[in-house]
């Protein structure tokens, strides 16, 4: 890193004014109104200091507007919940869905039965004639 | 993981740095007072804010910076507040008996006022808080290159503005 030049070093030497001494009592008095217990915690750890790392991380991540981010998360959860609700959101609607499921099951059974009628359970026994080209046994393919 | 023992201790340890930073940023003592109080009120309202914070100074300066930026934006919406205040002469540096030094400090205060607030914040943190560009970028939540360029252009402006006086007191 580049070292500060003479000008920067010169500027650094100039100290800022001291913070007015009277402000300390004024500001800390105002703070005490928010946290009356503050004066009793002088030697202690701030309340909540033993929170989990996750909560600390979450709070820092959401800083400086945790309320805004929390609100956004709540809206998002509501939208997700609404998106997962069945149309109409009633038991009747759920019943309709159940009925349509039954219809699908019945239709599937009918289709299975129809296919089983078309395809015999036992495969046809292979005979030498059946292994020959179809053109050589026209009587089977073209019944009178 | 260092946790400050309480707000009074925090005030004693960091109020002076926050005061200098806010005074340089706002260029107004009354606003500095309000913002400094607001920093500690925020900590009082949310004492767990500092849990897990390794650098309370950095956290407090960042909090002060964000509050000051919000504050000046609110003001700027109504009037050219920042520019007007920055143009006013303001004694932000400690008084001195040496007239040359006093003259330089006064000119430096004016020259700082001619920088934009965000540029001034970076210059302040680098020169008077001794932070690295990485720390400034992290604390002010700006890209590293932005921190470096704001500083470089800011110091170049100060140097050009103060060159005659600076040569005098060398």
Describe this structure in words.
By secondary structure, chain A is an all-alpha fold. Helices cover 60% and strands 0% of the residues of chain A. Chain A has helices at residues 6-12, 21-34, 53-62, 66-84, 91-118, 128-131, 138-141. Mean pLDDT of chain A is 70; it is low at 39-50. With 170 residues, chain B is an all-alpha fold. Chain B has helices at residues 7-26, 29-45, 56-78, 81-87, 99-113, 117-127, 133-140, 144-169. In chain B, helix 1 packs across helix 6 and helix 5 (99-113) runs antiparallel to helix 8. The longest helix of chain B has 26 residues, at 144-169. The radius of gyration of chain B is 17 Å and the shape is globular. The relative contact order of chain B is 0.12. The mean pLDDT of chain B is 85. Classes of the chains: A mainly alpha (144), B mainly alpha (170). At the A-B interface, helix 1, helix 2 and helix 3 of A face helix 1, helix 2, helix 5 and helix 8 of B.
What are the secondary-structure elements of chain A, in order, as H or E?
HHHHHHH
**Can you count the helices of chain B?**
8
Low-confidence stretches of chain B: none
Percent of residues in helices of chain B: over 70%
Q: What do the pLDDT scores of chain B average to?
A: 85
Computed CA radius of gyration of chain A, to the nearest angstrom: 42 Å
The major pleated sheet of chain A works out as: none
């Amino acid at each position: 890193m580049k070292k500060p030049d003479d000008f920067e070093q010169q500027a650094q030497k100039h100290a800022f004014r001291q913070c007015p001494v009277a402000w300390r009592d004024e500001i800390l008095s105002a703070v005490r109104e928010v946290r009356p217990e503050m004066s009793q915690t002088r030697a202690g750890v701030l309340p909540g200091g033993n929170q989990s790392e996750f909560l600390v991380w979450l709070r820092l991540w959401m800083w400086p507007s945790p309320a805004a981010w929390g609100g956004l998360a709540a809206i998002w959860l509501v939208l997700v919940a609404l998106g997962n609700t069945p149309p109409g959101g009633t038991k009747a609607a759920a019943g309709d869905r159940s009925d349509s499921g039954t219809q699908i099951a019945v239709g599937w059974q009918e289709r299975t039965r129809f296919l089983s009628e078309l395809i015999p359970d036992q495969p046809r026994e292979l005979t030498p004639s059946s292994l020959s080209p179809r053109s050589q046994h026209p009587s089977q393919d073209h019944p009178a | 993981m260092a946790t400050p023992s309480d707000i009074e201790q925090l005030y004693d340890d960091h109020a002076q740095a926050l005061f200098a930073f806010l005074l340089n940023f706002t260029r107004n003592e009354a606003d500095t007072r309000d913002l400094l109080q607001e920093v500690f009120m925020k900590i009082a309202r949310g004492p767990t804010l500092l849990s897990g914070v390794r650098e309370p100074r950095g956290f407090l300066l960042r909090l002060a910076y964000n509050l000051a930026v919000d504050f000046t934006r609110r003001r700027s919406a109504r009037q050219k507040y920042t520019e007007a205040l920055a143009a006013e002469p303001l004694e932000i540096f400690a008084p001195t008996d040496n007239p040359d030094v006093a003259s330089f400090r006064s000119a430096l205060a004016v020259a700082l006022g001619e920088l934009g607030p965000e540029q001034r914040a970076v210059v302040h943190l680098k020169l008077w808080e001794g932070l690295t560009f990485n720390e400034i970028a992290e604390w002010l939540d700006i890209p590293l290159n932005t921190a470096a360029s704001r500083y470089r252009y800011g110091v170049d402006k100060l140097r050009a503005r103060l060159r005659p006086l600076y040569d005098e007191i060398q």
